[in-house]
Amino acid sequence: MKHNVKPSLALTAALLLSASVVTGCATTPLTMADVPAVHDRTLTLDTHIDIPLTYIKEIDPSGPTALQVDLPKLDAGQLDSGFWIVYTPQGELTTAGIAAAQAISETRLDAICKLTQNFPESFGLAKTADDVRRITDEGRHAVLIGMENAYPLGLTGYEEELKIYTEIGVRYVGLTHFGHNQFGDSSNPHPTRDNGPKWGGLSPDGRKLVDILNKNGIMVDVSHAGKATMMQAADLSRAPIIASHSGVKAVADTARNLDDEQLRKIAEVNGVAQMVALGSYVKLPTAKQAAAREALDKEFGDRSGWWPSKQARYDERRKKIAAMAPEATVADFVDHIDHAVKVAGIDHVGIASDFDGGGGIDGWKDASETQNVTAELVKRGYSEADIAKIWGGNLLRVMEAVEVVAEQ
User: Under the GO molecular function aspect, what terms does this record hold (predicted)?
Assistant: First the structure.
C-alpha cells in the first residue's frame, strides 16, 4: 500500500512548478531508478475493473483469488483506486429483457457496495473526486462505480431508475455496449439483432439521457458507442465526456477504438479518453487468430445468457487462440497512450485495464504489475506531472467539472 499521506494533485503540481522556478529550467528528466518513488507518489486510478456475478457471494476479494484484481494484488501493484463495473450484456428491447438486465445489474451493484461495507479498513466508496483523494490519503483503496451499458435503465421511466443508481454511487454510465440499444447505436452491432445503424447515432431517448446524466452529475461514457453516437453525445453534453476504456484506431484499427477525429472531439469538450489494456484492442490479431476467434464466437453464440462455467470454457479457448502469436505488451499499450497524447493532448488521456473483463497484457497481467505501466511512461520520457495526469488527474478533473455542471 502507498504511504497514508501523499500530496494532492494540486500540491504536487505546485511543488513541481516551484522546483522549476528555483532552478530556472525544466525539471531533470526521470530515470528508471525513479520509477518506484514516482509510482508511490502518484495517485493511480483505473477506470474499468469488471467483476463476476459470483463476486462476494463466492469470491472473497480481500484475500488471494484467481481474479486479476483483489486486495493483495492491488496492494502489491499500488493501484490506489478504480471504477468497479456494473456490466450488463445487451439483450432484447422488451420488458422481459429489461427485467433480466436489471437483475444482473442489481447483483453486481450489491456486490460492489458489499466490498466497501465488508472491508472498510481497505476499501472506501467514493462518490466525488474529493472522496477519491481523501480515501487514498487514508491508505485505503477508493472504489468508484461505473455502469457499462445504459440498457437496464429501461424503455420508459429511466430518469427515476437512474436516480437509484446515482444515490448508490454510480458515477459514469456507458451509453451502449455490443449491440444497439434504446439510447443509441453501438460501435459493434449485434450480428443477428442489428442490421446496420438503428438510430444514426443517439436515439431521442439517448439525447434525453445525456441531459439527465448531466443534471445528476454522472459522466457520459462513450466507450462502445458508435462514432455518430459518440460525436453527438459530445456536442449535446454540457459537461466533459469520457471514453472509459478505449484504444486508438491509428495503432489498432478495430471498430471499438477511437479515430483521431474522435480524440480531437474529446479534447475539444475537455473530456478524457482512457486507453484500455485489452489485448485484442491494443494489438491486432493475425489473420489465423481472427478466423479462429470468429469461429469460436459463432460456436458459443450470444454471451448474454452464459453461466460462469461456459464463460470459463470460452476464456480457456480464447487463451489458446491468443497463444498463436506474441501477445500485446505494455510497450504496445503505451503506443496507444503516446498517440492519444499526440492528438488530444496530455490533459485528455488516461488508463483503464478492463481486468476481469478480458483485459491484461504482457507486463500488466493483473493489478500486481501496475508499476510496469508507470515504468514504461518514464522510459518514454513523460514527466512526473504528466504521469500524474494520465494515471488519474485528468479523470478527476472531469469528475469535478461534471459535479459543477450538476450543481448549476
Answer: metallodipeptidase activity
